[in-house]
Amino acid sequence: MKGKLLVMLALVIGLAGLLGYAGDKGTVYYLAPNQFDEMQTTAAAWIQKLVEEVGYKCVVMVAGSEDVSLQINQMEDAITQHPAAIILAAANADAIVSSVEEARAAGIPVIVYDRVISGTYVDFTSVAGCKKMGIAAGHKIASLLKEKYGEVRGNILDIMGDPGDMYTVLIEEGFQEVMANYPEVKINTKIAYGWEATTGANLADDWLTVHPDTDLIFAHADHLAAAIASVLELKGYEKGEILLVSTAGMPMGLDLIREGWCQATVQQPVIAQARGVAMFLDKIVQHQCPKPGTYDVGGLEATLVYQDYGPELQIPGDVITIDNVDDPRWWGNQVGK
């Protein structure tokens, strides 16, 4: 009997070592900017899942709908709990700087997920390589215009998200870098503050009223593209008559491609970014500096570099078109499964 008990105990200990017990290593807070789109809900779910798999309790706090003041208050609340770490997707990268500095002064590591905070030093950043996403979008847009005209020329309406979010700022930087090579392309840039879909739709509606011959609209997120597609349909445009390109790889973006309204979206590697946080979490909690170099993050070749604001894990995205839209690897095809 004693031998059987020892065997059972060994099995339990072994299983605990394999699975871990959420919370054994302390509590980690994840501060999300919103939960009104599938990207943010997917990110929160996977961060919680993966952080708990490596042995921490994960508490998710949501800043309403990009409510900067609320997120600052949530940061202060989290700091008072002395957690093992705070993971942060900033509602506004500039406004949250002093809160980040307060956390780090208290000895709490701050890990940035997705939305780069460059105004102060942070312990770790896991990003999509947003400038590279913008570059990929730019090359795809150039290809679409060349396919239409035989050369790269035309008129583009470029609709950014909120400029307080480095996601859209860096995408714009990469996009403009590519487009600078094509002087025959005219770009008019508008801003959808707060990432509001209604704002994006109104911007497109107003622009097309004056410029009905626009060749292409580049929306910096799929939920903006969905609202814009509705505008195109209401105005009587045929699918593909005005080309539409987006980013993120949300389920709605993939559906827009299937339906013919959108020609491409550049996927943000949402799950891989969460996995990157979990991979390095123990090191960051222990105040160790991760080594720069190349890492396999869920089958993607990511690069860890040191920026002025700290170590940054850059994970590549993919261009999704009608040719590969049903690939099960895309996070937008995994939602609800």
Walkthrough of the structure:
With 337 residues, the protein is an alpha/beta fold. It folds into two domains: 14-128 and 269-317, Response regulator (Rossmann fold, 3-Layer(aba) Sandwich), CATH 3.40.50.2300; 130-267, 3-Layer(aba) Sandwich (Rossmann fold), CATH 3.40.50. It contains ten helices and 14 strands. It has an eight-stranded mixed β-sheet with strand order 2-1-3-4-5-13-12-11, with helices on both faces. A six-stranded mixed β-sheet has the order 7-6-8-9-10-14, sandwiched between helices. The N and C termini lie far apart (44 Å).
Secondary structural class? alpha/beta
Range of strand content: 15-25%
- Count of alpha/pi helices: 10
In spatial order, strands of the major sheet run 2-1-3-4-5-13-12-11
Order of helices and strands: HEHEHEHEEHEHEHEHEHEHEEEE
CATH class category of the largest domain: Alpha Beta
Shape: elongated
Low-pLDDT ranges = 1-20
- Using the 3D structure, state the CATH architecture of the largest domain: 3-Layer(aba) Sandwich
Give the name of the CATH superfamily of the largest domain: Response regulator
CATH topology descriptor of the largest domain: Rossmann fold
